[in-house]
């Protein structure tokens, strides 16, 4: 099967996740800047961090399927696995905010980020192990940022036991690292025009259907 339906479903889920997160922001009771700061200041910061993460996954998810890789049952379940961890972002973000960045909520938030990162790696591996997935391996090459991110997540979780606010620093660093646009797929497509978006892969690279 083609990836169009999977991409559309994933886009819808990510949009809902963002909507749920913004609806969870506390509305100030007063009308002064101090009311906004005291009531929603921390919530806006944690929402911004989680929003950036959702945006990063949406962007990378687009790149992952830009080569129109084969989609089988394993890829579908790996994609749902990723969406499961991303769907917990509103919960872990809200708990982090309401606790005023306490130890356990910070650790749980970090574990959520780590689990989503691992799930994305599993999704990528599931695609590359299907017939035709070698195009993705060739396009992505060495995934340095993907290897560094889990290390920083674990570092943030460890630092949270020292000071919870300190644990957020590696999480922010990962977000900043991934905000830099990834040009690997575009470079690959520029040198392999036959694999550009909208073109069909060879018939023998479609892979199994569920």
Describe what this molecule looks like in 3D.
72% of the residues lie in helices and 0% in strands. It is mainly α and 210 residues long. The protein has one domain. The radius of gyration is 19 Å and the shape is globular. The model is unreliable at 196-210 (pLDDT under 50).
Topology readout:
Blueprint: H1 4-23, H2 33-65, H3 73-87, H4 89-98, H5 103-128, H6 134-140, H7 144-160, H8 164-179, H9 184-191
Key traits:
210 residues; mainly alpha; 72% helix; globular
Gross geometry: globular
- Integer count of domains: 1
How is the biggest beta sheet arranged? none
Number of strands: 0
Q: Please tell me the overall pLDDT.
A: 85
Q: Can you describe this structure in just a few lines?
A:
The protein is mainly alpha-helical and 210 residues long. It has nine helices and no strands.
